[in-house]
Every structure is written in structure tokens, then in C-alpha cells.
Specification:
Helices cover 39% and strands 14% of the residues. With 391 residues, the chain is of the alpha/beta class. Helix 2 runs parallel beside helix 8 and helix 5 packs parallel to helix 6. The radius of gyration is 22 Å and the shape is globular.
């Protein structure tokens, strides 16, 4: 209890927003970046700068291998998934181009698309079904009539936890001469991701969610066919400072300025941990999310958004109550039980409009690393009490 009698956070169930805590090695790698590897990577021939460059090179190589990226140079470090999706969409789309998007997109995609639409890009939004899953045939239909430059879709939903058929969407996109661009923010770490098999042209991800790295670092894979203009130009560390324009070589083209070395090394440590423990963690998450989903279904008044029980999803459960506002539930869960969740629209108004919850929002539980069955049971017990008491 804190001084004002409120519970302190003891059960963290907001992994959909950001993961916490981080696995062993992440904080240590970040500390090392600050205490030992202080040189500016690529910007100096002295030992410390060279060591920092090598550490970043190793991080890129290992993270690329973890994600099944064939050529590590196609994987760039970005400040986050939002920045990465802005780079791809704004860097590719020109007035007169056409893009097909899914109605479940997060604002990291929806807002750049809205801005592009205002600038003369035709944005066609394909409605997902009531579980928040996009229908491949509906995307195909949307592409049949006109030349389309790209299809953009999330890999997994941050409101529903639904897993989208991204490999099939990539096939459809390619069959129509379009690029397949994927927002992988909620998929990385929670699903086994193999970029080669997915066959997508762009895959962006946060480092700080399921990949278990620190905040402020993210990833962007771009296939050789996907060549967005860079949004930021400047120092590249690659030597040719006299060149007037940003070098065209990857990864330098998309990584202007001094990189986030502590973030990159922290993410590297997290991915190294996931490489050895990710499969067991995913099985644990699947069991927890099922237990929670089942438990909520037995509570009167609650509705779970997204896929039915038993359908695979990333470990997110968002719910509504027929009489109690979800922000009241989130507030009481925090104050009385020390349970951290997130109410509202989750930066995804398109998704909530699709699900019919734009007016009410939802209460989201994001499960992940560090959570136990006891956490799930405590959340269910708290919901049962609050559902009765506040209704
Ligand atoms: N896309 C989705 C589906 C997300 O859930 C989020 C995070 N809320 C983002 C994009 C933005 O990611 P980042 O925090 O790395 O910018």
C-alpha cells in the first residue's frame, strides 16, 4: 500500500502497451553500452568507437537471424514501430497511388494513411470481421479493379489479439503487383516470426513489447523490392561525408544520425534470451491467455472482444461490461488490487469502430513475461468482485 492507501502495482497486465519486467541481461547490456562502449559507432577509428560498431553489427546479425531475415543489411534499427511504419508509408506513397489497408489498424498506420489520403493517396480500408480478422478474399476483391501499390495490415491486433493471415495477404499483394507491408508490433516475441516464410516486403516491430527490449528502439525489415525514400537524412557513419545525399546502401540509408546504442544492445540481449526461452514463453502465454479467457466467459456481464476461445491469439484479452464503464474498472483494478491494465481506445479507433466499441472503449489485459497463473486468477477474482459491486 502507498501512503494514500492505494495498492501499489503488484500485478502487471499491460504487456500490450509495453513489456515489464525485462529478462535477465537487458539492463546489464544497456549499462555496458553506457559505461564501456561509449564511442560513437562508425564515427571514429579508435578502439571504443570500433567496439561499439562491432556490438551493433552483432546485434543486427543476431536479431536478423532470430527473425529469419536473409540479409541483415535489410534490417534497420528505428526508434519504434510508429516511426518505422511512418517511414514505409510516407516514404513509398505518392499522390495518385492506391493502398489497401485493414480496418483494425493502430494509429501508427491509420494516422499516416489519413495524412496521405489528404495529400491525394487513395486509401481503401477493408473491413475485418466481428472477431477483428481480415478476410483475404475481401482484400483480393479490393485489389482486382485497380492498380494498387501496397497492402498494409497488422500482424496481430492490439485490441483483439487476433492473428492476421499475413503470409496469404502477401501472396495476394504480390499477385497484383503490390507490396505487402506489415505492422508487427504485437507479433514480435509472441509469435514465431520468420520473415522469409512470411514473404512480406516490410515488417516493422516495437522492441519494447513482446521482444522484451527497452523502450525507444524498434525494427524495420525492408525487402530489396521495397525502397521507400528515407524520411531523415544526415550523418551515416559510413565514411563518404562529402556526398551531398544520403548513401543508398543499407542499413545506412535508413539510419541517419547517432544510433540508440543502449537500446540496440538491450534489444540484442532480450532477443538472445528469447532465442533460448521464447518457445517455452509462448506456450506459457498461450496457457495463461486461455485460462483468463475461459475465466472471463464465466463472469456475468462481461464480453470478450476478438477471436473465440480456442482460436490462437497473441496474449491480449480486451473486454467490456454491459453496465460498468471500462475506465472505472481499470481505475479500481489499479487502486484496490494493484493490477495494471489499460482502458480506452488503445490508439486504435478504427479497430474499435469495427468492433462496435468506439463509444465505450474496452479494458485490455496484456499478458506476458513474468506473469503467472496466480496473476490471472487474481485478475479474474477482482473482475468478479468489481462486476458485481459497480454494476
Ligand atoms: N502498432 C500496434 C499494433 C501497436 O500495438 C503499437 C503500440 N501500441 C504500435 C504500432 C506502436 O508501436 P511503438 O510503441 O513501437 O511506436
Amino acid at each position: 500500500m502507498s501512503a494514500n492507501g492505494a495498492a501499489t502495482t503488484t500485478i502487471y497486465l499491460d504487456h500490450g502497451a509495453t513489456s515489464w519486467p525485462k529478462p535477465p541481461g537487458v539492463a546489464e547490456a544497456m549499462t555496458r553500452a553506457v559505461t564501456e562502449l561509449g564511442g560513437n559507432p562508425g564515427r571514429g577509428a579508435y578502439r571504443m568507437a570500433v567496439d561499439t560498431s562491432r556490438a551493433i553489427h552483432r546485434a543486427r546479425t543476431d536479431v536478423a537471424a532470430f527473425l529469419g531475415v536473409p540479409d541483415a543489411r535489410d534490417l534497420t534499427f528505428q526508434p519504434g514501430c510508429t516511426q518505422a511504419m511512418n517511414l514505409v508509408l510516407r516514404g513509398l506513397m505518392r499522390p495518385g497511388d492506391r493502398v489497401v489497408a485493414c480496418s483494425m489498424e493502430h494509429n501508427a498506420v491509420a494516422r499516416p494513411l489519413n495524412a496521405l489520403a489528404a495529400a491525394g493517396v487513395e486509401v481503401v480500408v477493408v473491413e475485418a470481421d466481428e472477431a477483428g480478422v481480415i478476410d483475404v478474399d475481401a482484400v483480393e476483391d479490393a485489389m482486382r479493379s485497380q492498380t494498387t501499390k501496397a497492402v498494409v495490415c497488422q500482424h496481430a491486433g492490439n485490441v483483439t489479439g487476433a492473428i492476421q493471415p499475413v503470409a496469404d495477404l502477401a501472396d495476394v499483394a504480390h499477385a497484383h503487383g503490390a507490396l505487402a507491408l506489415v505492422d508487427g508490433a504485437q507479433a514480435g516475441g509472441h509469435l514465431p516470426v520468420d520473415i522469409k516464410t512470411l514473404g512480406v516486403d516490410a515488417w516493422a516491430c516495437s522492441g519494447h513489447k513482446g521482444l522484451l527490449g527497452p523502450q525507444g528502439i524498434g525494427l524495420l525489415y525492408l525487402s530489396p523490392a521495397c525502397q521507400p525514400d528515407e524520411l531523415v537524412t544526415g550523418g551515416s557513419g559510413s565514411g563518404a561525408s562529402e556526398e551531398p545525399l544520403q548513401p543508398a546502401v543499407r542499413p545506412d540509408r535508413y539510419e541517419a544520425g547517432t544510433p540508440n546504442t543502449p537500446g540496440i544492445l538491450g534489444l540484442h540481449a532480450a532477443v538472445t534470451w528469447l532465442r533460448d526461452n521464447g518457445e517455452a514463453l509462448r506456450a506459457h502465454e498461450a496457457a495463461l491467455v486461455r485460462r483468463f479467457h475461459e475465466g472471463v466467459l464465466s463472469l456475468p456481464g462481461f464480453r470478450v472482444l476478438g477471436p473465440d476461445l480456442g482460436v490462437p491469439r497473441v496474449p491480449i484479452i480486451a473486454l467490456t461490461h454491459e453496465r460498468v464503464a471500462t475506465d472505472r474498472l481499470a481505475f479500481a483494478l489499479d487502486r484496490r488490487y494493484g493490477i495494471a491494465t489499460r482502458a480506452g481506445l488503445h490508439c486504435a479507433p478504427w479497430a474499435h469502430r469495427t468492433l462496435g466499441t468506439l463509444q465505450t472503449g474496452a479494458l485490455r489485459f496484456g499478458l506476458g513475461y513474468g506473469n503467472t497463473e496466480a496473476d490471472v486468477d487474481a485478475a479474474l477474482e477482482a473482475l468478479a468482485e468489481l462486476g458485481e459491486e459497480l454494476a
